[in-house]
Automatic annotation (TrEMBL):
Keyword entries, A-Z: Membrane, Transmembrane, Transmembrane helix
Pfam families: TctA (PF01970)
Transmembrane segments: 20-39, 46-69, 106-132, 144-164, 170-188, 200-223, 321-341, 353-372, 392-422, 466-487
Keyword Transmembrane helix: yes
The DUF112 domain, residue ranges: 20-437
Domain of life: Bacteria
Signal peptide limits: none
UniProt protein name: Tripartite tricarboxylate transporter permease
């Protein structure tokens, strides 16, 4: 009962006019960013992170949470009307949504996506409210070895599941872990990998790396693949939601929520995996499976609900354990740390007012997003017509200004350029950038917990795996990796049998 009382206090804070304006600003920016192809919430949060240092922590985090939720909403607009997902988690929506739009049912596709996102986001936020304090209460009892196990699980799954190649994911993670070692060792006071540069003595700022790989690197990558000529946008035609569309949509909304939220809470689950699973489930359970591939409304309703439910699920390990499982979550962790706040089990006791105001703002942001996405969809369509050269030039300018504003040091701009070029070549050659940022953020934390474990055990390495929680975590990780290999082999065999001619 105390948790719900704390939530009411959070609503009292989040409902203040100042915070309502910050929430509205966040969801508006997030929707606009989700609509624009190639610009995701991670880039926007990274871009705005240096510019929000003048705000108090609650205001900044409410803006970032609004951007996160808004980006999930806005990505469906581009997928449906342009067949170009604004966010990777909206790829599945394009499969059926764009075909619905070309068949004259664009309004219905946009409506079922927006309403499904609202339903799933609200239910998932309720689950976040109910589960997060309990998980945090249990997580307080975890020891250093248990946290090492959690971080190893996060490292492995993030590197293995984000991107097409596990090897490239691990290589990206290794780069992030190395960057986390740069600076002065807190235990010995010795400088590591600084090359004698005073700028690197305090380590590489997470903000600079985040802005470099997500804003500069991504902007260069998207600009290098930019299409020339006018953008063809399908007009918003047809009726919004008929009785038949409501009947066919409400079950996929609930199923998508049931699939998305638990997957979002798992390291490296996120929205991408949940949307594909939801689409596969709807295809099997649909009354009219023959419509899939031609514009089935279930193929839009289910994945969009799973998308937003997973977004709330991602906040569970972030707030309770301090573990980011997506790129945007990693940037939000950096936002917490920039204010001297460490997400984790103590967050609900040491910064209770802040975290409950943040959760309350998610409810309010969901309502704002529904109002923004349904009546104003034709305005968001006009955003798609912004000339791309102006757009990406503006991103690079704000990235440079924001980075310089962190420390007012010119060397940071040079470091931003280097990291941005690294991010560009990683994207160009298929290396995911999210493991790099996760490794940079969690690497120093993992090093600290390993040292603490070894100090307590007087150098006994078996202490890292002998605690019950750590043993279970490593066992679950092993099972997951074996299952992933088996599934991949089965897919290859199935694909080979399909192309093998019969005698």
């Amino acid at each position: 009962m105390g948790d719900w009382a704390a939530l009411l206090e959070g609503f009292a804070t989040a409902a203040q006019p100042e915070y309502l304006l910050y929430a509205l600003l966040g969801v508006t920016l997030g929707t606009a960013v989700g609509v624009l192809p190639g610009i995701g919430p991670a880039m926007t949060v990274a871009l705005l992170l240096p510019l929000t240092y003048s705000l108090e922590p609650a205001a900044a985090l409410i803006i970032f949470a609004g951007i996160y939720y808004g980006g999930m909403y806005g990505g469906s607009t581009t997928s449906i009307l342009l067949n170009t997902p604004g966010e990777s988690s909206s790829v599945v929506t394009a499969l059926e949504g764009n075909r619905m739009a070309r068949a004259g049912r664009a309004a219905a596709a946009l409506a079922t996506a927006a309403i499904g996102s609202f339903v799933a986001g609200t239910i998932a936020t309720l689950l976040l409210t109910a589960l997060a304090p309990t998980i945090a209460e249990y997580a307080v009892k975890l020891g250093p070895a248990d946290y090492v196990a959690l971080m190893v699980v996060a490292f492995t799954t993030v590197a293995a599941l984000l991107g097409a190649s596990p090897v490239r994911g691990l290589a990206s993670l290794a780069v992030g872990l190395f960057l986390g070692l740069v600076g002065t060792d807190t235990l010995t006071g010795q400088q590591r990998f600084t090359l004698g540069a005073p700028t690197l003595a305090d380590g590489i700022d997470v903000v600079i790396v985040a802005v470099g790989v997500f804003a500069v690197g991504e902007a260069l990558y998207v600009a290098s693949r930019m299409r020339h000529g006018p953008v063809e946008v399908v007009p918003v035609d047809g009726r919004w939601m008929t009785r038949e569309f409501w009947r066919r949509s409400w079950k996929p909304w609930l199923r998508g929520t049931a699939i998305g939220f638990p997957i979002g809470t798992v390291p490296a689950g996120g929205a991408d995996v949940s949307t594909f699973l939801s689409y596969a489930a709807e295809k099997k359970l649909a009354e009219h499976p023959e419509e899939f591939g031609r514009g089935a409304i279930e193929g839009v309703a289910g994945p969009e609900a799973a998308n937003n439910a997973a977004a709330a699920g991602v906040l569970v390990p972030l707030l309770t354990l301090g573990l980011p499982t997506t790129a945007t979550a990693a940037i939000i962790v950096a936002a917490f740390q920039s204010y001297g706040i460490q997400p984790g089990p103590l967050l609900f006791t040491q910064d209770s007012a802040l975290v409950w105001a943040l959760i309350a703002s998610l409810y309010l942001g969901n309502v704002m997003l529904l109002v923004l996405n349904l009546p104003l969809v034709r305005i968001w369509v006009k955003v798609l017509r912004i000339p791309r050269p102006y757009l990406y030039a503006g991103i690079l300018l704000f990235a440079a200004l924001g980075t310089y504003a962190v420390n007012f040091v010119v060397d940071d701009l040079l470091l931003l350029l280097v990291v941005g070029l690294v991010g560009f070549f990683m994207r160009r050659h298929g290396y995911p950038v999210a493991p790099l940022v996760v490794g940079l953020i969690l690497g120093p934390m993992a090093e600290e917990q390993v040292r603490r474990t070894l100090q307590i055990s007087q150098g006994d390495l078996t202490a890292l795996v002998t605690s019950p929680f750590a043993a279970v975590a490593y066992g679950a990780l092993l099972v997951a990796l074996v299952a992933a290999v088996v599934l991949r082999l089965r897919r290859r065999r199935a694909a080979g049998s399909e192309v093998t001619p019969t005698p």
